[in-house]
Design a protein that fits this description.
279 residues, 4-stranded antiparallel β-sheet, 9-stranded mixed β-sheet, 22% strand, Rossmann fold
Length: 279
């Protein structure tokens, strides 16, 4: 995770509704020889749920991703804050998976792990263990140890207890991080990861660098950690934010994972003007 992921650039503005930009999106992608479609998981392919283990992609998104993955001129990638093994178990089809905000990357039959993140995994493990004890009295709080990073989930915590949970999490982090880790906010979560200049945007740049000239990149995501990926693809590619109408580096927005399905259908039409839809 990078420091740029926690802030919003002054020049950024609210993205346009995607339905208003369909002709512009189609025109900007029409001349591309190939597409690279990078997708966040939670809040993008799958609705946000109270229990993270229950998250599943919508049927429309699952089918649309499968169709795009089968197209010879499209490379699909999932770029998630979830651990690599976790997100691979939740969505089939993509050629590339990036887990832990890009700290681990599965492509071309092998898995690469950021070397600094690997070295600091033991510190993450210790910090998550301390948080389990410290936050034990907070109702419904959940600490997710993803080996290379950790997440403290507050979505199911009673609203009155959330400030206490955040304060305790911050205090434990400051006591145990030793300057080697960083803390960032997401949607009713706090993320803990290695303090290194690496995030989803870096992972998307690395993936895109492998693609041949003439490839257009699309990135779709819903949270603060996706902003670095929007900045990585814009303005040459297209960033689409899911939910919210505040300033973003993305050019377009959709309201929900249902809107993502409409976007994926548009991308199918761009690469196959008269597609034969599979059931």
């Amino acid at each position: 995770m990078t420091s740029t992921e926690s802030g919003t650039a002054a020049a950024e503005s609210p993205p346009r509704p995607l339905e208003d930009g369909f002709p512009a999106v189609r025109a900007s992608l029409a001349d591309a020889e190939r597409l690279l479609v990078c997708l966040d998981f939670d809040g993008t392919l799958a609705p946000i749920v109270d229990e993270p283990d229950a998250a599943r992609p919508t049927d429309d998104n699952r089918r649309a991703v499968a169709r795009l993955a089968d197209h010879q001129d499209v490379t699909t990638a999932v770029v998630s804050g979830r651990a690599l093994r976790d997100v691979r178990d939740r969505i089939d089809g993509p050629a590339i998976y990036a887990g832990n905000h890009g700290l681990e990357l599965a492509r071309r039959g092998s898995i690469a792990v950021h070397p600094v993140a690997r070295k600091r995994a033991a510190r993450i493990d210790r910090l998550c263990a301390v948080l389990e004890t410290t936050l034990a009295s907070i109702p419904n709080v959940r600490i997710e140890n993803k080996r290379l990073s950790g997440t403290v989930h507050f979505r199911s915590v009673p609203p009155a207890a959330r400030p206490v949970a955040r304060r305790l999490t911050t205090a434990v982090f400051e006591a145990f991080s030793g300057g080697a880790l960083e803390l960032s906010r997401g949607k009713r979560i706090l993320e803990i990861g290695p303090s290194i200049p690496w995030g989803k945007g870096n992972a998307v740049e690395l993936i895109a660098a492998d693609k041949p000239p003439g490839t257009a990149t699309v990135y779709v995501g819903d949270d603060v950690t996706d902003e670095s990926a929007f900045r990585a693809v814009e303005p040459g590619g297209i960033g689409v934010r899911v939910g919210g109408d505040g300033p973003s580096a993305a050019s377009y927005r959709v309201e929900s994972p249902a809107g993502v399905a409409s976007l994926l259908s548009l991308l199918e039409d761009v690469v196959s003007p008269d597609p034969v839809r599979r059931p």
